[in-house]
Amino acid sequence: MKLKENISKYIFLTLAFSSISALALITVFIIINGVPIIAEVGIINFIFGMSWAPSHGEYGIFPMIIGSVTVTLGAAVLGVPIGVCCAIFLTEFAPPTLSKLFRPAIQLLAGIPSVVYGFWGLLFIVPFIRNFFGGPGLSILAGSVILAIMVLPTVISITEVSILALPKQYREGALALGMTHWQTIRSVILPSAKSGIVAAVILGIGRAIGETMAVIMVLGNAVAVPESILDPVRTLTTNIGIEMGYASGTHRQALFATGIVLFIIIMVLNATAQYITRKKK
């Protein structure tokens, strides 16, 4: 019996290390291929450079950083409130029959390929923006709407699980003290589930900032700093997706360096979320 337990322990330990090793290998591979071009161009010129012209030896990714930040911020502004409110409705207000109907539909959203979202956005969202708001339609707004829809399953599911995991005594105690249902949700449920909600938001933002195929189809992919949400932009991920197929030499290294910057941005987002959560606690 003890032998079986030891074997199981080492099997799980090996699987855990294999996952960590895969992450470490990916990180080392990206750094080895991306750092030389950063050292050659200069980290300031690479990050804050305004021109991306690999054929002329110009590797400035600042417009794409701005594009990634604006599109992701727009997706968060549109998707997070809707996702949290939907989770509150499913856990606190919806009848069991309606909840059983909504949950599979929400999970189905997560299983739809991103190219389908992009194609749908290209056929409906882009023409709608062009006709009612002006501009080319391929814009930050179009990308934000598509990404907001794509992050909804993540935000809703994790927020719902966080709320359902709270002890029933929280609700019962609040109601016994004379709070209304809405006051209980606002003053007890949401503050108690805030760590789970923050995790849902961070995972949603991570999904948005790492998305490639859908936003390639609706952003317009212009390498320029946008002046409004109706302007086309290019994100870090779309830049890699568009050019990696034919890049070589220093151009290929610059794309790997772009991946390093994207990796760092995601790490900063996670660290910031953890700091905010600890500070509130």
Question: Secondary-structure map with pairings?
Answer:
Blueprint: H1 2-41, H2 43-48, E1 52-53, E2 58-59, H3 62-93, H4 96-111, H5 114-132, H6 140-164, H7 168-176, H8 181-192, H9 194-210, H10 213-218, H11 236-243, H12 250-280
Antiparallel strand pairs: 1-2
What is the gist of this entry?
It is built from twelve helices and two strands; from the N terminus they run ααββαααααααααα.
Task: Describe the 3D structure.
The chain is an all-alpha fold. It folds into two domains: 2-48; 62-280, MetI-like (MetI-like fold, Orthogonal Bundle). 79% of the residues lie in helices and 1% in strands. It has twelve helices and two strands; from the N terminus they run H-H-E-E-H-H-H-H-H-H-H-H-H-H. It has helices at 2-41, 43-48, 62-93, 96-111, 114-132, 140-164, 168-176, 181-192, 194-210, 213-218, 236-243, 250-280; strands spanning 52-53, 58-59. A two-stranded antiparallel ribbon has the order 1-2. Strand 1 and strand 2 (58-59) form a beta hairpin. Helix 1 crosses helix 12, helix 3 packs parallel to helix 6 (140-164) and helix 3 crosses helix 9. The two termini are 43 Å apart.
